[in-house]
Amino acid sequence: SDLAKLQNEVFLRDAYHCRYCGGKLLSQEFIKMFIKKIDSPLFKRGETNLTTHGIIHITWPVADHVIPWNKGGKTNLENLVTSCAPCNYGKDGYTIEQLGLENPFRRKPVKSDWNGLRD
Asked: Which of helix, strand or coil describes residue 116?
């Protein structure tokens, strides 16, 4: 999909920080590898939100459509930001205006030496 191709570019641009709350996120590859290494039935990314461990929800990066896809928002770098899963779930299909959120593109991405544990 278009989103799958763009998401890593979005995560790199935003330095693995949620553009809404500023939280540090982990690379999806790191989380998948960690789940495999820890090999616990309690710590997994399940088929549903309820069967996914909470730590994974908090650290899993999502490419979020600032203008929601269901309201005609495009899947491109000008409309996608890195989001933590909780901010993404909370925003849902609403616009930032409906929720009273500042446009995340008006704030520069947090730049630090954090890279989502990609290496």
From this structure: coil
Q: SS in 3 state form for 50-76?
A: CCCCHHHHHHCEEEEECCCHHHCCCCC
| Nearest alpha carbon to residue 101 among 91, 110, 92 | 91
The candidate with the shortest Cα–Cα distance to 84, out of 31, 22, 4, 33, is 22
For the whole model, what pTM was predicted? 0.87
**Bridge partners of residue 17, in order along the sequence:** 24
Structure tokens at 33: 């590898």
pLDDT, tens digit, 9 for 90 and up, residues 1-26: 777 889 999 999 999 999 999 999 99
Beta carbons of 83 and 56 less than 8 angstroms apart: no
Task: Identify whether the C-beta of residue 114 lies closer than 8 Å to the C-beta of residue 18.
Answer: no
